[in-house]
Amino acid sequence: MRYNRQELIIGQEGQNKLKNATIAIIGVGALGTVTTELLARSGVGKLILIDRDVIELSNLQRQTLFDEADVGRSKAVVAKEKIAQINLDVKVKTHAIHLNSENISVIKEANILLDCTDNMKTRFLVNDYCRKNKITWIYGAAIKTHGYAMPIFPDGPCLQCFTENVSLETCDTVGVLNVATTSIGALQTSLALKILLQKTVEPLLYHYDVWNQDFRKLTVKRKEKCPTCNEMYLFLDQKEDIRTVKFCGSGRYQVSGNINFDEVNSRIQGTYDGETIQTDKFLLFKDGRALIKASSEEEAVSIYSRFIGN
Ligand SMILES: [Zn+2]
């Protein structure tokens, strides 16, 4: 009975295809909460959720899976808890990590990948990985009142082929309406479901301005000198060596280190939820990253060394 209304459109055979599918969602923010919820309600069998960040009050305007009580907790972990309340049939695997070239294989079992990130570097990494491993992924971005979505197939144009068309603005600086993010999330979900159901989807760049009621389909051509299409995976070959990353506008620093998580957990007083340890000074992830509230990079590194390790 649960999928009755949907089966009238896609049939029981289609519903079974969704049940047997695995989708990875990279970034559980504005686009990611919408796509995750819609895919879970549709009955997609398995979801892999990846997000490095914690929930902030300013996220609640558009990140539809989160409530006021969730502020300060890991997005990936909270999303998993919410999905368990919506549809227990869906298996959810979470990775509260900063995706990079060394850990990107956590997405390898996915049939399709949804790009719900807000930064170009991760998108290019995903672009390289998917091209190399012949995985279809769906680019998505929303800003101000509008946004883009595009299915990127192993044999079609890739993200590097059309990057000139893509804006590098982020919603931290120019803002975004929740009607734009939910519309683009719904568009990405439609594309993913149709591909899983083996229906025809054109490899076009779809642009939608929901506020101004304008929908466009843009043709993207494969660029002859595109590095990714010529099997030069620059982002996948790059090793990351970042000790600290400052988060835009939030006064929070990400500091990484090589630690024994269980040892730290037994030593410090904090709240452990299976993936993270929360204290009044920091939120520590299993991969050794900590989000630290501090007034300078030096202070953040010093808190990390003092309380967590080197
Ligand atoms: Zn390309």
Describe this structure in words.
- It is a single chain.
- With 310 residues, the chain is α/β, with parallel strands linked by helices.
- It has 2 domains: 4-218, NAD(P)-binding Rossmann-like Domain (Rossmann fold), CATH 3.40.50.720; 244-307, no CATH class.
- The chain has 9 helices and 14 strands.
- An 8-stranded mixed beta sheet has the order 3-2-1-4-5-6-7-8, sandwiched between helices. A 6-stranded antiparallel beta sheet has the order 9-10-14-13-12-11, with helices on one face.
- The structure holds zinc ion.
- Zinc ion (ZN) binds at residues 157-158, 160-161, 222-223, 226, 228-229.
Set down the secondary structure blueprint.
Layout: H1 4-19, E1 22-26, H2 30-42, E2 46-50, H3 75-86, E3 91-95, E4 112-115, H4 120-132, E5 136-143, E6 146-152, H5 171-174, H6 178-196, E7 205-209, E8 214-218, H7 234-237, E9 244-246, E10 252-256, H8 261-267, E11 271-272, E12 276-278, E13 282-285, E14 289-293, H9 297-307
Parallel strand pairs: 1-2, 1-4, 2-3, 4-5
Antiparallel strand pairs: 5-6, 6-7, 7-8, 9-10, 10-14, 11-12, 12-13, 13-14
Helix pairs in contact: 2-6
The protein binds zinc ion.
